[in-house]
């Protein structure tokens, strides 16, 4: 009788232990949590497991310091932690976090997104780098060159307006084009399209600060208008010395009700890279076509750098009404349509 009770009790204890072990394994070692974001962590020489666990817990990367420390002790990895800066993805298993922090090697990489690149070029670059698929980037940044009011199937950009006040004035029927600040970034090895977009928006917020936004508004321009014009300047003008001059020409043409007639707006629409556009392209019915419709295009046609944005905010007064970029990339100016026609004949051969 006693022997039977003992055997039954032993079996129940074993089953309970196995159940706890499976739950522990599922919850902490294998199955990722629901929240997922990159958490920065710096491990200095001499930092102990308790300090690392405390930092991870404080930053929300793990739920239990005790379980983390216990796993490190059980796995015998307490002496293997590497020093340096890491980006730990919260929500993943403790086993993966420990493996990342105890494996030698880099935890970040560098990417360069060029000034003037649009969402299309950025998405293709990130795909080539093996970072994100084009569609994944579009799901966050939005489908480029698209009016969402007329295209219900296009990917709409994620709404970041609660995080970034400068997006409040952006129409909801265009992508995040123009606000993805081009720069060189150091990013975690494990990163999502949303992570990258958020980093670029943070950079925009820092570089185009409140003072610059107020300066634009004091000149009677909205931030959206400034960024849209700056994106044209970025595509049309190579030299910084010409940007403010071209800015003044474009603003005056807009104020006078003249069409901008810039090839870059049509190339953005078609995705072509040609220095001049065809007559058929000029007839494309799109609010991005500045030959067919007066005013600014529907939205920015790329992501301008700081120089072009400053030029859009601070135009340099001049007497020209026309400009063109020759095949050599040099800007030629004209005061009259006749002068502009002469420049076209001479420099667009």
From TrEMBL:
GO terms for molecular function: lytic endotransglycosylase activity. Its EC number is 4.2.2.29. It comes from the Bacteria. GO terms for biological process: cell wall organization; peptidoglycan biosynthetic process. Functions as a peptidoglycan terminase that cleaves nascent peptidoglycan strands endolytically to terminate their elongation. Belongs to the transglycosylase MltG family. Pfam families: YceG. This is Endolytic murein transglycosylase. It catalyses: a peptidoglycan chain = a peptidoglycan chain with N-acetyl-1,6-anhydromuramyl-[peptide] at the reducing end + a peptidoglycan chain with N-acetylglucosamine at the non-reducing end. PANTHER family: ENDOLYTIC MUREIN TRANSGLYCOSYLASE. Keywords: Cell membrane, Cell wall biogenesis/degradation, Lyase, Membrane, Transmembrane, Transmembrane helix. One of its GO terms (cellular component) is plasma membrane. InterPro entries: MLTG-like (IPR003770). The record marks 236 as: Important for catalytic activity. HAMAP family: MltG.
